[in-house]
Design goal:
By secondary structure, the protein is α/β, with parallel strands linked by helices. The protein folds into two domains: 7-166, Rossmann fold, CATH 3.40.50.720; 176-264, ProC C-terminal domain-like (ProC C-terminal domain-like fold, Orthogonal Bundle), CATH 1.10.3730.10. It is 51% helix and 14% strand. The protein has twelve helices and eight strands. It has helices at 14-25, 45-49, 58-64, 74-84, 104-111, 142-153, 166-174, 176-193, 198-219, 223-230, 236-246, 249-264; strands at residues 7-10, 34-37, 53-55, 67-70, 94-97, 116-121, 131-137, 156-160. Strands 3-2-1-4-5-6-7-8 form an eight-stranded mixed beta sheet, sandwiched between helices. Helix 7 crosses helix 12. The chain is elongated, with a radius of gyration of 21 Å.
């Protein structure tokens, strides 16, 4: 599904670069159709050698592009939007924002332009093509939503949600990567305590976690259904599960996700 369009990724950090590489790997864009921006462009020298366009001039990048990806921190957004405002064109440009806690309306207001904006919230597993990306909009066409979905489908799985749930998606999917990593790390430390070398324990814990996730995704199963298969009466699994629950395992995870969602909602507003 090769396209003739040009895409500018403003703020080429981990997420921006992973998206660029994913689009090229999937054969949708050639490197020549992608412009990457960053204040310090020496960090992009390797990609420039591969054929990507590289610049520190965001307005210039927007002028050349049809699709503009905003991939920066919430605190940097207003300054960036002011910078690209003269180059933005409401009939030509589609804006994709991966900035957490910033609404489509916030972006249009700051730009003072009635441009189509679609928000996307990927996570860092985008680097290996395993992102869970949530997509939302308040004014984009069905055609453009499908386009953005197809872009992010090249780097994982994407779903469309209501815009008011985007902050929640940030907590569950973007911050969520760290929560699951911490639980795998804890499991591996438990493994070391019961006799395994640290590197073996980590590999065993990570593969076990991957297997658990794939059981749910591939069988469309429910966690409790799979848990029931491992818990025999008076057995060791239920003993371990109950010990964890007595110490607040599920409750801590739920509270952490709620706290992250609260924080994500005010990052932009409190700049």
């Amino acid at each position: 599904m090769e396209t003739q369009q040009h895409i500018a990724i403003l703020g080429s950090g981990n997420i921006g670069l992973a998206l660029a590489k994913g689009l090229v790997k999937a054969g949708i864009f050639k490197p020549q159709q992608i412009t990457l921006t960053r204040r310090n462009i020496t960090a992009l020298a390797e990609l420039e050698a591969e054929g990507y366009n590289v610049t520190s001039d965001n307005a210039l990048a927007v002028t050349k592009a049809d699709i503009v990806v905003l991939a920066i921190l919430p605190q940097q957004l207003n300054k960036l939007l002011d910078e690209i405002q003269p180059a933005a064109n409401k009939t030509k440009h589609l804006l994709i924002s991966v900035v957490s806690g910033v609404s489509c309306e916030d972006i249009r207001n700051q730009l003072d332009l009635d441009v189509q904006v679609i928000r996307a919230m990927p996570n860092t597993a985008i680097a290996i093509g395993q992102s869970m990306t949530c997509i939302a909009t308040d004014n984009a066409s069905t055609e453009n939503i499908s386009l953005v979905k197809s872009l992010f489908d090249t780097v994982g799985v994407s779903i469309q949600i209501n815009e008011e749930l985007m902050t929640s998606a940030t907590a569950l999917c973007a911050c969520g990567i760290a929560f699951f990593l911490r639980s795998i790390r804890a499991a591996s430390q438990g493994g070391t305590e019961i006799g395994f070398h640290a590197h073996d324990a980590l590999k065993m814990a990570a593969q076990t976690a991957k297997g658990a996730a794939d059981l749910l995704l591939q069988l469309s199963s429910h966690p409790e259904q799979e848990i029931d298969k491992v818990t025999s009466p008076k057995g060791c699994t239920i003993a371990g599960l109950n010990e964890m629950e007595h110490n607040g395992f599920s409750s801590a995870m739920i509270k952490g996700i709620k706290m992250s969602a609260e924080k994500a909602g005010v990052l932009y507003k409190s700049e």
